[in-house]
Amino acid sequence: MKRLMLIAMIALGGSAFAQGKPAADAPKPAAQDAAKPKPVARKHGPKRGEDARHCLEMPSNTEIIKCAEEYL
Predict the structure, then answer these.
(1) Within 13 Å of residue 17, how many CA atoms lie on the same side as its CB?
(2) How many CB atoms lie within 10 A of CB 7?
């Protein structure tokens, strides 16, 4: 009984996946490829790993972020 169910699931599942495949010869629009910028690798700064808690004493969030970015 279990073998019969397994065979039936494989037969039905295989035909469902075969119908859902997109055409391989469909060209991709060039605008989609150009719209996605590639991630840029950043080099670590000389202060990486040092203590940046003094940045938390800044008065605004923007100043805290600018100060802390030196330590990334």
Answers:
(1) 6
(2) 10
58: three-class secondary structure by DSSP:
coil
Helices (H), 1-72: 2-19, 30-35, 61-69
pLDDT tens by residue, the chain, 72 residues: 778 888 888 887 765 555 555 556 656 655 555 677 887 777 766 677 788 899 999 999 999 999 988 888
Q: What single letter denotes the amino acid at residue 16?
A: A
- Residue 55 DSSP label: G
- Report how far residue 72's alpha carbon sits from residue 53's, in angstroms, rounded to the nearest whole number: 13
Domain edges within the chain: 48-72
